[in-house]
Amino acid sequence: MNRKQTDKFATTIFTLFAAIIVLVLAALLGYVLYLGIQQVTWDFLTSKSSNFRAGGGIQDQLFNSFYILLWTMIFTVPLGLAGGIYMAEYAKGNKLTAVIRVCIETLASLPSIVLGMFGLLVFVNTFNIGYSVLSGALTLTIFNLPIMIRTCENAIRSVPLQQKEAGLALGYTHWRTTTTVLLPSAFPSILTGIILSCGLVFGEAAALLYSAGMTTPNLDFGNWNPFSGTSPLNIMRPAETLSVHVWKVNSEGIIPDIRDVADGGAAVLVTTILIFNISARMLGSWIHRKLTSK
Fold first, then answer.
1. Do 210 and 119 touch, CB atoms closer than 8 A?
2. Which CATH number fits domain 39-292: 1.10.3720.10, 2.130.10.10, 1.10.357.140, 3.30.450.40?
3. pTM of the predicted model, to two decimals?
4. Where are the alpha helices (DSSP H) in the chain?
5. Could you report the per-residue pLDDT of 18-58, keeping only the tens digit for each?
6. Does the pLDDT of residue 292 top 80, yes or no?
7. Transmembrane ranges (predicted)?
């Protein structure tokens, strides 16, 4: 084959692989939504779940998912941003940096169930926090931290070197150049990474089985005292999330409408993650256009 034929053949192969990926994703989403979307009603979203009777909803589990996500990102974003800045701008090319990088890569490759067991051992038992929102958020922070560090590091490294040199040429210190030149330029990529991480955390189940628990107390949404055991804001209470609820209903549920609750919960879960991913792309593109006037 000549060069044109080789190029055409390679383009066809890559397009075929891309089409296969899109078809698999579309089939998966279509199957989940086809089974579950008809179960998703306002009453399903705003009523409490039941362990014995049919007709239960996912109100508490949906709230718990967003609440643990909030606390996870409160811990993850500052730590991930600090780690990314250090790895991109301050880490020297020595053995210590190599060890840190290996640790980050190893942590990123650990199965989430192993991190869940670590959360059980350290946060639930050793620190005696118990099955709680806090234990779940701290466990998910460890789960999510390598991704955030990589995202921030790559975003900062992607800023053109000329911008950094211009800041230093104006007499800025390294820290001021990082905070006033590099971080604003890298912000769209960092924000996109944060939102994508939100989707990852929202759908996580294995790490929460042994840290946040598989039950939820009878929450009173009129009680906003964060120290009350029935308050939704209490971070020391057990918190079954939506992904854990779907798994639990499918594996241990005895309610008559197991199939409907599991399908409806899965549809809400997938739709929310899809919204996270789409909004990350749209918001990142919008901020990039605003900053670059393109």
1. yes
2. 1.10.3720.10
3. 0.88
4. 3-36, 42-46, 59-85, 95-109, 112-119, 133-157, 161-169, 174-177, 183-202, 206-209, 242-252, 258-292
5. 999 999 989 998 999 998 888 888 988 988 888 788 878 88
6. no
7. 12-37, 66-86, 98-123, 129-149, 186-210, 266-284
